[in-house]
Structure formats: C-alpha cells, structure tokens
Amino acid sequence: MKVLIVGGVAGGASAACRLRRLSEDAQIVLFEKGKYISYANCGLPYYIGGTIKDKDRLLVTKPETLRSRFNIDVRVENEVVSINRDKKTVTVVNHADGSRYEESYDKLILSPGGNPKRPKLPGIDLPGIFTLRTVPDTFRIDEYIKEHGSKSAVVVGAGFIGVEMAENLKERGLDVTIVEFLPQAVSNLDPEMAAILHRHLRENGIRLMFGTGVKGFEQKERLCVRLSDENELPADLVILSIGVAPDSSLVKDAGLPLGIRDSIRVDDTFQTGDPDIYAVGDAIDVKQFITGEETLLALAGPANRQGRAAGENVLGKRIQKDEGVIGSAILKVFGLTAASTGLNEKQLKEKKLPYLKTYVHPSDHATYYPNSTQLSMKLLFAPDGKIYGAQAVGAAGSDKRIDVIATAIRLGGTVYDLEKLELCYAPPYSSAKDPVNMLGFTAANMLRGDVKPFYAEDTDGLDRSKVTLLDVRTPEETATGMLDGAVNIPVDELRSRLSELPKDKPVYAYCAVGLRGYVASRILTQHGFDVYNLSGGMKTWRDVHD
Amino acid sequence: MKVLIVGGVAGGASAACRLRRLSEDAQIVLFEKGKYISYANCGLPYYIGGTIKDKDRLLVTKPETLRSRFNIDVRVENEVVSINRDKKTVTVVNHADGSRYEESYDKLILSPGGNPKRPKLPGIDLPGIFTLRTVPDTFRIDEYIKEHGSKSAVVVGAGFIGVEMAENLKERGLDVTIVEFLPQAVSNLDPEMAAILHRHLRENGIRLMFGTGVKGFEQKERLCVRLSDENELPADLVILSIGVAPDSSLVKDAGLPLGIRDSIRVDDTFQTGDPDIYAVGDAIDVKQFITGEETLLALAGPANRQGRAAGENVLGKRIQKDEGVIGSAILKVFGLTAASTGLNEKQLKEKKLPYLKTYVHPSDHATYYPNSTQLSMKLLFAPDGKIYGAQAVGAAGSDKRIDVIATAIRLGGTVYDLEKLELCYAPPYSSAKDPVNMLGFTAANMLRGDVKPFYAEDTDGLDRSKVTLLDVRTPEETATGMLDGAVNIPVDELRSRLSELPKDKPVYAYCAVGLRGYVASRILTQHGFDVYNLSGGMKTWRDVHD
Ligand SMILES: Cc1cc2nc3c(=O)[nH]c(=O)nc-3n(C[C@H](O)[C@H](O)[C@H](O)COP(=O)(O)OP(=O)(O)OC[C@H]3O[C@@H](n4cnc5c(N)ncnc54)[C@H](O)[C@@H]3O)c2cc1C
Ligand SMILES: Cc1cc2nc3c(=O)[nH]c(=O)nc-3n(C[C@H](O)[C@H](O)[C@H](O)COP(=O)(O)OP(=O)(O)OC[C@H]3O[C@@H](n4cnc5c(N)ncnc54)[C@H](O)[C@@H]3O)c2cc1C
Ligand SMILES: CC(C)(COP(=O)(O)OP(=O)(O)OC[C@H]1O[C@@H](n2cnc3c(N)ncnc32)[C@H](O)[C@@H]1OP(=O)(O)O)[C@@H](O)C(=O)NCCC(=O)NCCS
Ligand SMILES: CC(C)(COP(=O)(O)OP(=O)(O)OC[C@H]1O[C@@H](n2cnc3c(N)ncnc32)[C@H](O)[C@@H]1OP(=O)(O)O)[C@@H](O)C(=O)NCCC(=O)NCCS
C-alpha cells in the first residue's frame, strides 16, 4: 500500500510514524512544503523571548530519524498543489528545483494545518508586520528585532499566541501593546476569568486595548497601526495573531465537502468525502464531545492523536473512531497559568443549554505549608449534574485541576463524582479537600437545593429596597468597602443578631469568596429567610466588575 | 436531635461542621481528649523540620470558630471513655479537672483516629523515643531536640510518616538512619518504584537499613537501638513510625462488631452495628473500590469526606452512600514526589487478579522548554483494559498524572480512555502526548497484541542460548554496559541488518526506556520474528535491580 502524507508536523508526522509501526510494507511519502518537519510550533514564541535558546531544540524529530528509523520518504520543500482523485495522484511542486511531478497513492492523509489570518488591510505588506506559524517565521521575527533594534511591538489579537508573543516580546525587553477587537483576551475563558489575566498582564507592563480593531498600517517616521477608534499606534514591530484559518485548499479544489468555516469535513474515522483520503489536525472540523456539534480546534494534542488514529485507519484493518474533542487548553502568562476545558459560559448561553455555575477560590495546596497561592476556579454544569466545563487561573496547580476535570468530562462524570474524587493529598500538593472536591461540593450543594446562588453580574440589578444585601465579613474586611446598600453582620455574630434582618425580604448574602456567605445562608434559610449566596464572593465580584 | 462527636480533628470536625450547616437545631457536642482540635496532622513533620515555623499554623480552625460560627459545644481535654448503648449515653472524663460525667445522645459519631503502634520492646519507654500523631507529640520532639542538642536520629519504619520525618530531621541538621523491617520504603509503591526513592534518600544523606527489625532499646552512654541483625545503632533520638492501629476501643467495649485488624466495622453509610452510632476516619474499615474487599486507609482526604457524609447521614434525611476508597497517596521526598493510586502489583499478585503492566519514562513537560525532568511511571491494568492502579515518581508533575488516573479509576475508565484523554498542553506543562496518554498508548498496544512485553525481572531467567537478547540503543549508549549476552543493533540500522538475527529464536529487545525497543519489536514482528520488548527499558531494569 502506498500512502502519501501532506504536512510534516504534528498530524502528518504522527500519522507517518504510527502507520510505519503498524505496517512495515506500506510505502510512505511525507510531503512538507516548508524546509522543516516535526517542529515545535508551540515552542516558537519562547525562542523569540529567549527562553528556548537553541534553534535545534525547536526540531522535535529530525528528517534523518524519520528516514532511518521509520523508513519514511521525507520530502521537504515539496508542496502538494493538487489532488487528482480520478487518477489517485497528487501533483507536487519541488520548491528546491522548481520541478513539478505527480505521485500516485492508494491512501492519502492530509494534515496541512492552517494559515494565520492576514486580512487585506491597507499597508498589511509593510515591513515589520509578521505572523507566527513556522520556524522560518520565527527566525524572521528574531532577526528583524536584532537588525532593527526594535523597541516596541503591537500585538494584534489576544488569543493564546498573541498573549504568548506579548509575554515573550516583553521578556526580550520590548514595550508591548495588545490590540484586541473583543472586550477580553483568550476567548476560551469567560470574561471574569480573563479579567485576572488582564490585571496580571498590566502588572507586567503590557498595555491592553480591548474593543479596538485595526484598520490598517502606515509607514510614517515609524510603522503606525491605525486603530478603529481613529487613533494611531506607532510600533517597531507588529505581530498579527488574529487566528488561524483551516487550510482546505486541496480538498476544496478536489471537490470534496467542506466543514464549518471552510475546514475539511471528515467523519469519525477522519475520512473525508473520498474514502481514500483522510485528514487530521487544524485543517479539519471536529465534533464537540459534549454538544455533538461541529467545531474547530487548533491544538497540538488532538492533532497528534488524530494523526495517530488516521495512520491506523488507512490500513483498513482496525478502525479508531473519534469521539470528538472537549478542548482542554492552557496558557502561561508570566507568573500565572490559565487553563480551561469543555464549554464555557458564553458557549452555553449561545447554545441555550441550561446550566449552573459555581466559583471557588481555594489554595493550590495547604495554606499552612509555605508558598501556597490562591486559585480562581469556575465550574459549569447541567441541572442533572453533568459537567460542561471548567476554568482555573492561578500561580500554581490550575493545570492539575483542569486535567482532572477534563478526565471527568471525558468519562461522563458529574459534579457528584467530583465530590467523591480521591486525589493525592500531602501538604505541598493539595488540601484534604482538593479544590476539585470543593467545586464538586459547592455545585452539588446548589443542585441539592441547600444553597441558592446569586452571581456578581446580578448585584447591580438588585432593587435595594426589596432585598437585604448582607455582608457577612468582619468589620476589618468591610472597612475597605462594601457593596452599595449592604448591611454588615459578621457570620460569627449572625445567630444572635437575626432580629436585625427583616423577614419579609429575601437576603442576598456575600463574603470574600463565598464560603462564609454559604454558612450564613444555611443559618438564615433554616430560620425561615429566603436566602441567596454570592458565588465566588467579592473576589469573583471584583473580577466581574473589573 | 442531640449528636455527640468523639474526636475533634479530620473526621470529627468535618462531621460537626457539615451537620451544623445542614441542621441549625441539632445540639452538637464535640469531645476531644487532647488539648487541640482541628489541627494539621499532615503538617506536623514540617514543623519539626522548620518548614512550618509558626505553631498557630498547625491549627486549621480554632475552637472559637467552631463555637461562634457553628454553634458547636467543643469540649477539649474531655475523653469519652465508654459508650452506654442501653442508656444512649457516653461516659466522659474531663482531664482538666478530673471529673467524670455522662452525656446522652440521639446519635453518636466516632472519629477517634488511630494510635501509633508502640510495641512492647525492651527499653521502649526510655527517654528520646517518640511517636508522632498529635500537636503535643510534635512539640515534645521539637523541644527534646532543642534541649538535648540531638545530632542523630534513628527512624524506625519507612512508611509515609517515617520518610517525612527522616527528611525533616535531616533538614534540621540531624544525621538520620531509617531502619525498616521490609525490604523497601513506602509500601504502597512497588519495589522498583520505591528504589528511585531509596537512591534519592541516600543521595540526600539518609542512611537506609532495610530488612532490619528493631529488638529493643538500651540506654548506654547514648541511647542505643538494638537491631535484629544483632548490631546496635546509637542515636540521640528515635522516631517510631511503624504504623497506626485503628482506635476501636470504644466500640469494642460497647460490644459492636469490629472490622479487619480491630478496626470499627461500618456499612456504606458509616453506620456501625448500632443504628445510632456512626464512625469515620482512620478507625474504620472501608471497602476497596476496585476489589470490594475490606481494607484500612489512614488518610486525611477520606477521613474528611467520610466525616462530611456521616454528618449528613445522622440526620436520616438524605443518605450519602460510600462507594469505597481507591487509596490515592503522595509523598514529598526532598526534591522528588512519589504518588500512587489504586492497587499496586504486590496487591494484585496477592489477590491473584490477572493483570498487565507498563512502564514509561516521559518528561514532565516538553523537553524543548527549559527545566523538564524525567518521570518514572507504572500503570497496572486488567486484560480487559480496566485500570487497576498507577505509580509515578519524579521531580515534577507526578501529582497531576496520578490525580488524572485516580479520576479515571473512580469513573470506571480503561487504558483506552487514557489514550483519548484531552489534557492541557502548552510547553511548560506537558507534551502534546501527555505522559498519561503515553501510559494509555503503551498499555493499549499490549492489549491489542501489537507488542509483547517482557519485564526487567525476567531478564535473569532468560536462557541466553534459546533467545536473542537484542540491545537496540546506539553504540554510545551501550558503551556504558549492556545486559549479559546481548547483541547490539541500533534500531535505526535494524532493517538492513535483519540477517544478523537468527529467525528460529525469540528476540528480546530492549533500549533505554522502551520506546525504541517497541519500534524495533514492531519491525521484527512484521519480519516474522517472535519478539518481546522490555517495558520501561534499561531505566526500569536498573530500578528493578537496584
Ligand atoms: C506559535 C504557536 C504556538 C502554539 N502553541 C500551542 C500550544 O501551546 N498548545 C497546543 O496544543 N497547540 C499549540 N499550537 C497549535 C499546534 O501547533 C497546532 O494545533 C498543530 O501543530 C496542528 O498540527 P497540524 O498537523 O494540523 O498542522 P501543522 O503542525 O501546522 O503542520 C502542517 C504542515 O503542513 C504543511 N503543508 C501545508 N500544506 C501543504 C501542502 N500542500 N504540501 C506540503 N506541505 C503542506 C505546512 O507547511 C505545515 O508544516 C501553537 C501553534 C503556533 C503556531
Ligand atoms: C504525622 C502525620 C502526617 C500525615 N500526613 C498525611 C498526609 O500527608 N496526607 C494524608 O492524607 N494523611 C496524612 N496523615 C493522616 C491523617 O492525618 C489522618 O488520616 C486523619 O487525620 C484521620 O482523621 P481522623 O478523624 O480519623 O483521626 P484524627 O485526625 O487522628 O483525629 C482523632 C482525634 O480523636 C481524638 N480521640 C480519640 N479517642 C477519643 C476519645 N475517646 N475521646 C475524645 N477524643 C478522642 C484524638 O485525640 C484525635 O485528636 C498524617 C498523619 C500524621 C500523624
Ligand atoms: C514526534 C512525531 C514525529 C511523532 O512520532 P511518534 O513516534 O508517533 O511519537 P512519539 O515519539 O511521541 O512516541 C509515541 C509512540 O511511542 C510509544 N512509546 C512511548 N513511550 C514508550 C515506552 N516507554 N515504551 C514503549 N513504547 C513507548 C507510544 O506508544 C507511541 O507509539 P504508538 O503510537 O504506536 O502507540 C510527531 O508527533 C511530531 O512531529 N511532533 C512534533 C510536532 C508537533 O507535535 N508540534 C506541535 C506541538 S509543539
Ligand atoms: C476544617 C474542618 C474544621 C472542617 O470544616 P468545614 O467547614 O467542613 O470545611 P472547609 O472549611 O474545608 O469548607 C468546606 C465547606 O465549605 C463549602 N465551601 C468551600 N468553598 C466555598 C465557596 N467558595 N463558596 C461556597 N461554599 C464553599 C464547601 O461546600 C463545604 O461545605 P459542605 O461540606 O457543606 O458542602 C475540619 O476538616 C478540620 O478540622 N480539618 C483540619 C484537620 C485535618 O483535616 N487534618 C488532616 C489533614 S492535615
């Protein structure tokens, strides 16, 4: 069997290696239009920032290894320019010598990735404006900074790559501004979770301009970014990181069906509309594990595993069926880590799925053991307890908790399962009740009806004349400010001061993180009050109102 | 309803708080025979080592808080000395004033914990011999060291507490020897995983004496520990950490049924033989989640959650049923972390459960990003793919991976699920194929029959005349030694040198960690050889033969 593979990085190289391990006699040709295969896309920003110093480090596997160990015919600088389905061949252009040839296939696997979006704005082709996708892109940016002694950069787009680039350019000593059309960075996070990152980015000297579009670029004395608000932003360097468009050009030209946003449509075995053509990675549309809807997900883990599955499936012996993606993602932002999995609140609203949410702010490990830090966590779940998604931001331990919840989602877990999880505990690592247990407890308490939550976004709309807004923190804490119109009774005095609260009005209780508010609400509920507790307390309130 | 609770720490205090949150009108009395409640048992060794400096830090919740916030009648230095089931009362001795009284109950919750074992050896009561369970124990040890300027310590027993104490005494500047009857430390780990800790302990200056019992103690010029091998070990200080015996004295005297090893027997609602008496924590026997067998598990997470459940169950409204424990545990040993979950190989053998195992040694995060370190991981699973247990040792990231696997076990996951887990990936946190995915891949490859494993413990028994032992590493690697009788063909040359291998003998292939051996075994299998791959490679081999 002769298998051609288009694209020599995450999906393509994984497919090639897996296929070889399963079949010694397949003839495998790997086409890569660029100079490099099997490189660490995800490491590229860190090369620019200087965290990764050695160029060689960016290459995960050398072409020689794919040849000698896996007997793969690796052809770099060979671009597949068309698929000729009738003949079962592809047309290839060899960029090294300009030659053009056809290569036949029994099976074809496409992993062409995506192209960084580069809208046709005025001045877009001026020198100093870059996108980052490949190793040569990286070197180009690196050399440009060196050559021009660039001192300032505008990063357009505050997604993962934009934020990583901002951090790395800053660490390299540049003055960095992020311009983002949306009102927040990193859109897999809900706004109040992103707000924590915003503060941290600003504290680290990054200028943030949200709700701001880019209209074009102009070369004046310096390169200028023209903004939608009519202002101009001078910059020595511009990084465009406004997303990646799936590269479906080959299948489109071959007349095969496309998926959403011009992606390559595949079935759950990664087969395209042609039974001899498979596709994986950033270029394909995938099924969202929870909703079953089509979605795009440009991440390396899925690309690798899809490649592994496709490399097996082309053999036609054992078929690995895909169950879809949940979309676990993570981002380092200076000293913070933001991780998320599953659906966020914006998506749940969009899809009109009924959901509940809970916030907790536990320590990453026992507070009595040195260097514990506070996590901010959010869990989204269905009325029947099924977990929809979670987000966590903190200096340590958010990756672990989100991985645990990602595992629970994948295995169909509920918030009741999170209550029972038996996670590793010793003081340097966690607490006897792990933060994930705490999410489970607080969520299950809502579902069991033991506590009625209200949320930070509701406080403005509360008619102060119709409700009692009750701050149960200590006077020391309230000294720094209470919510407008709140009264203060510390939780520890509540039982003896019940008479101060009118019984005919609902009580909206709150504290610092939600725990004492919960205790207060349990006390009051049992004394006949109609009580709501502010989920996440003032901590989340501040994040929402940031 | 009047509820008495015996024991004011993990299980007892949790039960009391939960009960109060659910019921304002329950009368709750918490008896604690010691001076302190709600303390951080797990932090005690770190106070002695100086990592935790502030005494107050050891107290998680103050008695005042339990009184004011939770309206709990906290009675420290009040020991419950008997349960009078006929009268539904307990007899209490107030150690503060020596008085004795009865207190009636509707429901009784016991969380008396366990007692550190202190065998009646000659000289056991000599000064300088300590066990560690409570806050006063901690202060006693601390003061003894200060007062006597102790320079050396013998720790008897190399379980979690023993190893933590060894580390902390070392960090305090003492010369430390661990004496352990078993041939290894930390028996929840299998020996080859524990071997990594042994090396690390020795590298950090701890002397280890395994297979050595203690026969007694003698006060000569210095305190001497008399060993089973007739040697004597002088020491300024002895810590006995040879395990904890469940404290079931109260229920035993009350004629209630006991569980294994004299624990308190409870059902899955934590009810003892008496419907009005519940028990939780270190004192009870629990069901092993996987085997369904009775077992003991003295850990804080389960104790807390059991207390939480019992606090609810005594109310008789909603019943929280326990599904048993899997036993996730973790230990910091200087710069290493050892974590485990589920059943280990020793237990699987004992229980005669058919199992397979796989070892991998991946990096905790992408190697191209700085400061990655190598993990050593082991997964145990059933022939149908069901996960039995896992162990991980490394400088970083083992807690995360074991928590993920603990979650998978709890939700009935298989190794095929581990292959598909979508965990957070960015270079500082993991690899595109997370170490847990790698465990899944290698395990599933075995179950699918793509690779036949052999194990480090099998190499000695291999008749070199009947098999080919094939080292597929590079000559640079083999220069530092090969297995006896092995031939070397680097995997990258294998296809062209097949003729060097006799076809009529099975090939036992190995490499550094198992990956290239696996690739080699795939090549050879497809060329008609009968091949086995050394799981975990030379890395695991060395751990097994350490
Ligand atoms: C800067 C950056 C940081 C990232 N960080 C992370 C991260 O932290 N975590 C994460 O999970 N993901 C990250 N990603 C995303 C991840 O790299 C991608 O999801 C993954 O590489 C996609 O794999 P793929 O095989 O689909 O495409 P790619 O890895 O992009 O490979 C596609 C290859 O196909 C080649 N190609 C395309 N068309 C042709 C053709 N016609 N003929 C021949 N060759 C062709 C391309 O040149 C390219 O080399 C990052 C990406 C970038 C760019
Ligand atoms: C040094 C040390 C380190 C540890 N490290 C860890 C760790 O890292 N991770 C982990 O998960 N677990 C750890 N543990 C175990 C954990 O502390 C226990 O599993 C947990 O505390 C058990 O809770 P419990 O309520 O059953 O018993 P305990 O917490 O021991 O509480 C029992 C209490 O009951 C009191 N009591 C007993 N009988 C009576 C009576 N008749 N009347 C009145 N009071 C009575 C006792 O004085 C005691 O205070 C450690 C334990 C120790 C000692
Ligand atoms: C590395 C790359 C060439 C794929 O190679 P690969 O051999 O499939 O993958 P790995 O080297 O990770 O090894 C995984 C294989 O080794 C096996 N393996 C890993 N550790 C093992 C061990 N200790 N013992 C036995 N087998 C082991 C796994 O089972 C798996 O084999 P399988 O797929 O047949 O089950 C490809 O993924 C790539 O180019 N990656 C870099 C690009 C990229 O991913 N970029 C985006 C992220 S920065
Ligand atoms: C602390 C202790 C007194 C128990 O108190 P507790 O109030 O039950 O437990 P916590 O303070 O951890 O709070 C957990 C409760 O707050 C709730 N909660 C936590 N964060 C919350 C938030 N942000 N919003 C709302 N509720 C929250 C939880 O749901 C849970 O309530 P529930 O059990 O009714 O569901 C007891 O566990 C103890 O003494 N621990 C120390 C001893 C010990 O465990 N030793 C061994 C380990 S070192």
Structure characterization notes:
With 546 residues, chain A is α/β, with parallel strands linked by helices. The first copy, chain A, is 27% helix and 24% strand. Chain A has 15 helices and 30 strands. In chain A, strands 3-2-1-7-18 form a 5-stranded parallel beta sheet. A 5-stranded parallel beta sheet of chain A has the order 9-16-10-11-12. In chain A, helix 5 links the parallel strand 10 and strand 11. The longest helix of chain A has 14 residues, at 135-148. Chain A is globular and about 90 Å long. The relative contact order of chain A is 0.09. The mean pLDDT of chain A is 97. The interface between A and B is large, with 89 and 89 residues. Bound molecules: flavin-adenine dinucleotide (2 copies) and coenzyme A (2 copies). Residues 6-12, 31-34, 41-42, 44-45, 79-80, 111-113, 132-133, 161, 247, 250, 281-283, 298-301, 303 of chain A line the site of one flavin-adenine dinucleotide (FAD).
Q: Point out poorly predicted stretches of chain A.
A: none
Relative strand content of chain A: 15-25%
Side by side, the strands of the main sheet of chain A go 3-2-1-7-18
Q: Specify Rg of chain A, calculated over alpha carbons.
A: 27 Å
Sheet having the most strands of chain A: 5 strands, parallel
- Specify the helix fraction band of chain A: 25-40%
Bound molecules: flavin-adenine dinucleotide, coenzyme A
DSSP, total strands of chain A: 30
Coarse morphology of chain A: globular
What would you call the structural class of chain A? alpha/beta
Largest interface, Cβ cutoff 8 Å: A-B, 89 and 89 residues
Q: So how many helices of chain A?
A: 15
Mean pLDDT of chain A: 97
The oligomeric state of the chains shown is homodimer
- How far the N terminus sits from the C terminus of chain A, by CA atoms, comes to 59 Å
